[in-house]
């Protein structure tokens, strides 16, 4: 059986390419475990949180927004970046994003999973929570100034239909819908 050292690529040199508000980009020269060298383009991200929020009438809460890298509008679960330097935990970020983006609060949050979204080039770790016992807030936190969002509440079948048409096409939302479907099937058993 191969050990860690049989896979590890050792960094020889690192060059900063870009330092941004959301990501930092670097180019690493690496020594390959079998000999030789290569380059790796790396994106470092502070991490994010996604929230599976189901209304009392059993509908998933989604936000519709334009995603510039895709050049299209998609439906997603409420989500956001963990703010560094403010002491925010993933749960605090999730609670804030749920309220800012949807106007909902929850009385309980269950951590479902944490996943790396594209480990081939990025260290972004996304934490997914299930928000329970949702209630609408009279005066929710304001949305971010640079976001234009529309709230949708869909049944499971409607959400799956949006997956089929690619209106829902991101990993975190697909995961959340599949998890929700699992919950429903367990409740039926």
From TrEMBL:
Domain Nudix hydrolase: 44-176
GO MF term list: hydrolase activity
Cofactors demanded by this protein: Mg(2+)
BP term (GO), one: ribose phosphate metabolic process
Gene3D superfamilies given in the database record: Nucleoside Triphosphate Pyrophosphohydrolase (3.90.79.10)
Keyword flag NAD: no
Highest taxon of source: Bacteria
Keywords: Hydrolase
Protein name: ADP-ribose pyrophosphatase
The organism of origin for this protein: Enterococcus aquimarinus
């Amino acid at each position: 059986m191969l050990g860690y050292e049989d896979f590890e690529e050792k960094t020889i040199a690192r060059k900063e390419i870009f330092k941004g508000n959301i990501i930092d980009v670097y180019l690493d020269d690496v020594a390959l475990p079998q000999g030789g060298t290569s380059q790796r383009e790396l994106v470092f991200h502070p991490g994010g949180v996604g929230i599976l929020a189901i209304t009392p009438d059993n509908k998933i809460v989604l936000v519709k927004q334009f995603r510039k890298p895709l050049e299209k509008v998609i439906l997603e679960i409420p989500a956001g970046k963990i703010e560094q330097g403010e002491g925010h935990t993933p749960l605090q970020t999730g609670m804030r994003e749920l309220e800012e983006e949807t106007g909902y609060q929850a009385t309980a949050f269950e951590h479902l999973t944490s996943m790396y979204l594209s480990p081939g080039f990025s260290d972004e770790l996304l934490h997914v929570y299930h928000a329970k016992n949702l209630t609408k807030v009279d005066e929710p936190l304001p949305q971010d100034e640079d976001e234009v969002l529309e709230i949708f509440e869909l049944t499971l079948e409607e959400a799956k239909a949006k997956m089929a048409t690619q209106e829902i096409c991101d990993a975190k939302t697909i995961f959340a819908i599949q998890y929700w479907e699992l919950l429903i099937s367990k409740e039926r058993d």
